[in-house]
């Protein structure tokens, strides 16, 4: 991709579009717009409103490099910009954490009707997306979150500080060290990709996102099974889990067998059974 000094926005986008399309990127127009908007420090609407604006200097250099990294190395756009929107929040993300997805927002929605002031714990919090969104939208809740990865917790802590949201973060595997007698709800977007599906993942995901947050044994249930068991041993009345495509029937059975026998399955916008919520 060639972008010289003083190139109008429209031309910079067209040049990036050619490079990204040629590389087989799934969403070349969107990616080009997000990257250029970030380079210029504006929102995407400004690109459409002012297509004649010139891209110069440091913005040109950053945009050219970002498009190359996206096209050649398939680095995710969110890692290139360091940002990802989730619910009403603008989160900082980097390769230490899974990039929050729109379908995970269904987990937050499923818990917005919890009783006033109860305790909720987010297992495998990553960037802190679920925990921070819950606390942002339901400030009365007592929200805790944990992750086995120190790097992920550092990202979550940084997001909480920058956003001014009070969530208690702890390092630990699943519910280890969590006061289960005080819990009302457990929520998690756990690793659920089966090892055999590794080769089928998009390069963006497989090559760049943390495997610890993706893969969970031969069936993809290596984290969900023990988490359901641990949750059953707490006082939690609600257990909400994100699951992979095709996993909902099995997970529904696991959740019901653990005593959360009032089970609801929520589909994402693509119609996939994505969230399993058990109550008791």
Folded structure, characterized:
The chain is an alpha/beta fold and 280 residues long. It folds into two domains: 7-73, Orthogonal Bundle (Helicase, Ruva Protein, domain 3); 83-279, Vaccinia Virus protein VP39 (Rossmann fold, 3-Layer(aba) Sandwich), CATH 3.40.50. It contains eleven helices and eleven strands. The strands form three sheets. The chain has a seven-stranded mixed β-sheet with strand order 7-6-5-8-9-11-10, sandwiched between helices. A two-stranded antiparallel ribbon has the order 1-2. A two-stranded antiparallel ribbon has the order 3-4. Strand 5 (119-123), helix 7 (129-137) and strand 6 (142-147) form a beta-alpha-beta unit. The longest helix is centred in the N-terminal third of the chain and has 17 residues, at 57-73. The N and C termini lie far apart (57 Å). It holds the Pfam family PrmC_N. InterPro entries: DNA_methylase_N6_adenine_CS, HemK-like, N5-glutamine_MTase, PrmC_N, RF_methyltr_PrmC, SAM-dependent_MTases_sf, Small_mtfrase_dom. Its EC number is 2.1.1.297.
Summed up, what is this model?
With 280 residues, the chain is α/β, with parallel strands linked by helices. It has helices at 9-22, 28-40, 44-49, 57-73, 77-81, 105-110, 129-137, 150-163, 203-208, 224-232, 248-257; strands at residues 7-8, 54-55, 83-86, 89-92, 119-123, 142-147, 168-171, 183-188, 238-242, 262-267, 273-279. GO terms for molecular function: nucleic acid binding; peptide chain release factor N(5)-glutamine methyltransferase activity.
């Amino acid at each position: 991709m060639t972008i010289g000094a003083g190139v109008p926005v429209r031309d910079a986008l067209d040049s990036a579009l050619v490079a990204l399309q040629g590389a087989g990127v799934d969403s070349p127009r969107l990616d080009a717009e997000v990257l250029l908007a970030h380079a210029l420090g504006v929102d995407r609407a400004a690109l459409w409103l002012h297509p004649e604006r010139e891209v110069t200097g440091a913005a040109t250099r950053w945009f050219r490099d970002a498009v190359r990294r996206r096209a050649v190395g398939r680095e995710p756009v969110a890692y290139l910009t360091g940002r990802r929107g989730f619910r009403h929040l603008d989160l900082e993300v980097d390769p230490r954490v899974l990039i929050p997805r729109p379908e995970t927002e269904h987990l937050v929605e499923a818990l917005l009707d919890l009783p006033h002031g109860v305790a909720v714990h987010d297992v495998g919090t990553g960037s802190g997306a679920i925990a921070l969104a819950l606390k942002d939208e339901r400030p009365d809740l007592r929200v805790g979150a944990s992750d086995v990865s120190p790097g992920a917790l550092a990202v979550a802590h940084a997001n909480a500080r920058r956003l001014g949201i009070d969530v208690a973060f702890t390092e630990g595997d699943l519910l280890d060290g969590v006061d289960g007698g005080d819990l009302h709800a457990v929520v998690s977007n756990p690793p659920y990709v089966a090892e055999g599906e590794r080769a089928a993942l998009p390069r963006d995901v497989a090559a760049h996102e943390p495997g610890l947050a993706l893969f969970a044994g031969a069936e993809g249930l290596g984290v969900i099974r023990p988490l359901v068991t641990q949750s059953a041993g707490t006082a939690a009345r609600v257990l909400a889990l994100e699951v992979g495509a095709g996993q909902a029937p099995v997970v529904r059975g696991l959740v019901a067998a653990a005593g959360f026998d009032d089970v609801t399955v929520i589909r994402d916008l693509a119609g996939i059974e994505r969230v399993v919520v058990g109550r008791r």
